[in-house]
UniProtKB/TrEMBL annotation:
Cited Pfam families: Zn_ribbon_GRF
InterPro entries per UniProt: Znf_GRF
Domain GRF-type stretches: 31-72
Ranges for region Disordered: 1-28
Lineage: Eukaryota, Viridiplantae, Streptophyta, Embryophyta, Tracheophyta
UniProt key word Metal-binding: yes
Lineage top rank: taxon: Eukaryota
Entry protein name: GRF-type domain-containing protein
A molecular function GO annotation: zinc ion binding
Length: 103
């Protein structure tokens, strides 16, 4: 279904152009303010390991940096464990599969 007309009175201009990431927990809009459908991604940063988020699909080509988390924040303790496992797994290389199974 393609309806680019987007009837509702949603004219927020192009506040999309700021270079800062805009993460909002809570309600997820249907699309980013460019009008594109979100692309599903998984964060692999130390701060937010294996968290899921949706991001603007054209954020590499435009200055749009919008994204939203789509799952709950990881509790600090769990995050620490994940990061520890990950760095251990990196050193041990081949053992990574094992850790994955235990998660
Ligand atoms: Zn966008």
């Amino acid at each position: 279904m393609k309806s680019m007309s987007g009837g509702s009175a949603r004219s927020r201009g192009s506040s999309c152009s700021s270079s800062r990431f805009k993460a909002v927990d809570g309600e997820l809009p249907k699309s980013c303010s460019c009008g594109y459908k979100w692309s599903q991604q998984t964060s692999l940063t130390k701060k937010n390991p294996v968290r899921r988020f949706v991001a603007c699909p054209v954020r590499d080509e435009t200055s749009c940096k919008e994204f939203f988390w789509t799952d709950d924040p990881i509790p600090p303790r769990t995050m620490q464990i994940i990061n520890e496992l990950e760095s251990e797994a990196r050193t041990m290389d081949g053992q990574f599969k094992l850790y994955k199974l235990r998660l």
